[in-house]
Amino acid sequence: xxxxxxxxxxxxxxxxxxxxxxxxxxxxxxxxxxxxxxxxxxxxxxxxxxxxxxxxxxxxxxxxxxxxxxxxxxxxxxxxxxxxxxxxxxxxxxxxxxxxxxxxxxxxxxxxxxxxxxxxxxxxxxxxxxxxxxxxxxxxxxxxxxxxxxxxxxxxxxxxxxxxxxxxxxxxxxxxxxxxxxxxxxxxxxxxxxxxxxxxxxxxxxxxxxxx
Length: 212
Hints:
Layout: E1 2-7, H1 11-22, E2 27-33, H2 39-42, E3 48-52, H3 60-70, E4 75-80, H4 85-93, E5 98-101, H5 106-117, H6 129-141, H7 155-165, H8 170-177, H9 181-195, H10 200-211
Parallel strand pairs: 1-2, 1-3, 3-4, 4-5
Helix pairs in contact: 6-10, 7-9, 7-10, 8-9
């Protein structure tokens, strides 16, 4: 039986994933948390921890580093939309074992958990900012239809959109705006939800369209 703790701050998502995983005969969700307090995991560490990379009120990278150090028998799988290049590097260096896209199928999620529990690392291929920029430009040239011009963003969110369009990483955006990197990730997540976009590429495409 694979014991699992889920750390996800969206209650609907958290409860939905937990319910689906508990339907698997070889899974047992022993915790579904909104925050990643390592203290809650030390007494009875699970085999696998599913961790949302975009927690609003906590730093997922810090959580990964602490858990990897203090509970090395627990293998972390991070969940995100489309990660930036540096996000992948950071989580790998923090000791994360796996990565799963939030729009992955249930079969992919279940397979990733089983593979990581068995000792196999499951991580996405590296992405480059130059490829990101090229695809974003092509998306604009394709004139993708999206009724998003009327969506209102905060001034800070608009700044983040513009800097993503310039090809800056989360760390570079954080330095430019003098805010924490995990705050930048939260802004990106909020922008995606507001615009009903699913990738950072589309955020950049949106910014280019506004400048035309």
